[in-house]
Write a structure and sequence with these properties.
2 domains, binds manganese (II) ion, Alpha-Beta Plaits, 33% helix, 19% strand, TIM Barrel, binds phosphoenolpyruvate
């Protein structure tokens, strides 16, 4: 950590800064420039509270050398992490293709969609049973009945399942049914929820909040990792932009950036990022080309009757065409779309 002192820092203040650093059991290296004095702190900076160092009189700026998300950082873990979702690997060259309706719907429809996406090469089935809706009057999901249906339909087609958990009190229930716990954009900074999914030890799909920076996203991943759960997959799903022409602003650059900063897998969700079926295939391929470890897409066989997010759903045949392109692109990039897990039935 480097401390840059104020231009007019007095000798007394400089001595005090050095005393405070040494009191923490660290070494201070003083460097006097023509205009500014700099104090380099030598030793393990992980225990230092940046806020209190910044509050020492005479200190202008504190520049940490290590990122604050120490478990999530690539420095801490140079190898790319591979997360195993009940036999489907994501990360380190393994591509996850997550697809399904926004909400868990009628049983026969769920079977039709699951069968279609599995035939196209998807390896994880999605569906929300607890829906975080902007309006309290909108469809809120089928609750536990939805969880059971999602799990049973997934099992019938050999697909692990992902569903959102919206409340720390629901984590044990959702973890009973889901192979992958989704934390939605609206809950990215729900720290009680992050701690709870961390403690569950289930793989977690952490979506980027709609007004969150990449550093915010990595700090939220750190919450989960700090509970001893290494199975975190990040998801770029678009952030708030100023132009309503697309639902959100798809931040493709976040993919290679996260991969530089972190060892965690990152997937893209062009469905929520764009909200427009006609843009989704191009944006899915752009995400993969940028290095994403997977693609998450909403698919519905009759979008006009969908319980939520119908306008952004791809039809199964549109998904199939895209899935074939995604598989080819993955191969071109030297990656493989993870096959479905062997069933033991
Ligand atoms: C979803 O996946 O259906 C969802 C609500 O996503 P997000 O949290 O990214 O809006
Ligand atoms: Mn949705």
């Amino acid at each position: 950590m480097i401390l840059i002192l104020k231009g007019g820092a007095t000798e007394q203040q400089i001595d005090h800064v050095i005393q405070r650093v040494e009191a923490l059991g660290l070494k201070a290296h003083l460097s006097r420039g023509t205009f500014r004095t700099i104090v380099g702190i030598i030793g393990d900076e992980s225990e230092i509270v940046v806020e209190s160092i910044r509050a020492i009189p005479g200190v202008a700026k504190v520049v940490p050398v290590l990122p604050p998300y120490k478990l999530a950082s690539r420095e801490a873990h140079p190898e790319s992490s591979v997360v195993d979702v009940s036999g489907v690997k994501i990360g380190g060259g393994h591509v996850g293709l997550i697809a399904g309706p926004c909400s868990v719907e009628e049983e026969d429809r769920m079977h039709r969609i699951a069968e279609a996406i599995a035939a196209s090469g998807a390896n994880i089935l999605r569906g929300g049973a607890f829906k975080p809706r902007t309006s309290p009057y909108a469809f809120q999901g089928l609750g536990e009945e939805g969880l059971r249906r999602l799990r049973d339909v997934g099992a019938a087609h050999g697909l692990p399942v992902v569903t959102e958990v919206t409340d720390p009190r629901l984590v044990p229930l959702v973890a009973e049914y889901a192979d992958l716990l989704q934390i939605g954009a609206r809950n990215m900074q729900n720290f009680a929820l992050l701690n709870e999914v961390g403690a569950s030890q289930r793989p977690v799909l952490l979506k980027r909040g709609m007004a969150a920076t990449v550093a915010d996203l990595l700090m939220c991943a750190e919450y989960i990792l700090s509970q001893g759960n290494p199975n975190v997959i990040l998801c770029e799903r678009g952030i708030k932009g100023f132009d309503p022409a697309t639902r959100n602003l798809y931040d493709v650059a976040a993919v290679p950036l996260v991969q530089q900063l972190s060892h965690l897998p990152i997937i893209v969700d062009p469905s929520h990022a764009t909200g427009k079926p006609e843009l989704i295939p191009a944006c899915a391929l752009a995400g993969l080309a940028a290095g994403a470890d997977g693609v998450h897409i909403e698919v519905h066989d009759c979008p006009e009757v969908a319980k939520s997010d119908g306008p952004q759903a791809l039809l199964p045949e549109q998904y199939d065409e895209l899935a074939q392109q995604m598989k080819k692109l993955a191969e071109l990039l030297g990656k493989t779309v993870s096959p479905l897990p062997e069933t033991t039935a």
